[in-house]
Write a structure and sequence with these properties.
Layout: E1 2-7, H1 14-25, E2 30-36, E3 41-46, H2 52-61
Antiparallel strand pairs: 1-3, 2-3
The structure holds copper (II) ion (CU).
Copper (II) ion (CU) binds near residues 12, 13, 15 and 16.
Length: about 70
């Protein structure tokens, strides 16, 4: 089990956080997604078969790319 935290400046409202949580939550291996408007961050807990590369690729695909700070 691994947890990663990304800054996602493209999130602007509850709809955004909901989309991020729903889309990432559908990825096989992802067990928890917490998107926060206050911090602008998304915390993702996952395990095999999900990979960090896969998560980043999906976030780019849905137009909420993670920004490395
Ligand atoms: Cu929004």
């Amino acid at each position: 089990m691994k947890t990663v935290s990304y800054s996602v400046p493209a999130m602007h409202c509850g709809h955004c956080t909901h989309t991020v949580q729903t889309e990432l939550g559908e990825l096989a291996g992802v067990t928890e997604v917490v998107a926060s408007l206050e911090t602008g961050k998304v915390n993702i807990t996952f395990d095999s078969p999900a990979t960090e590369e896969q998560i980043v690729a999906l976030m780019k695909e849905i137009n909420y790319p993670p920004v490395i700070v």
